[in-house]
């Protein structure tokens, strides 16, 4: 515990009255923003329900985003939504199937996804990942994994890391969630494929260099 000189002196002299720093500490605590709620289990329940509907539709899809990382065994705290990748041409069939199962469909202004809501949680149905169209080949590489008891296709580790790095920009560049993913999946990721995919993407290249400095990846010659 770190103490200021004044607070330390108050304790060292056996002061029994309230510390002169107690009130300021309470004010600081009161002003601290509340931590965002942990939606992990609620998001997992929604993911299972939507995944079951998508499986029944017979159309190819894959779980992506933070919940995909969770399915691959990465300890993450889910807070925002659950994301599924699917082919644009399957959007109408999939959304109609979800509507029939009570999922609320929201048409956003963006043309690369459809938003939905179920169980109080947000759902993104995505046709384009990091600016690249979702393809049948991408979905075919997905791995079937259990998501809290329901098996469904989950984006493969190499594709998951590539998409996350290509999504980084000057306005959204948080390496924090990516580090545990890189460490946890490093033996399952084809890193040379990732390197080739992010050539010319400054944030992606910077993250790979950071992994070298942290000895997560071997340093390349000349690094």
From TrEMBL:
<dbReference type="InterPro" id="IPR039498">
    <property type="entry name" value="NTP_transf_5"/>
</dbReference>
<dbReference type="Pfam" id="PF14907">
    <property type="entry name" value="NTP_transf_5"/>
</dbReference>
<feature type="region of interest" description="Disordered">
    <location>
        <begin position="12"/>
        <end position="37"/>
    </location>
</feature>
<protein>
    <recommendedName>
        <fullName>Nucleotidyltransferase family protein</fullName>
    </recommendedName>
</protein>
<dbReference type="InterPro" id="IPR043519">
    <property type="entry name" value="NT_sf"/>
</dbReference>
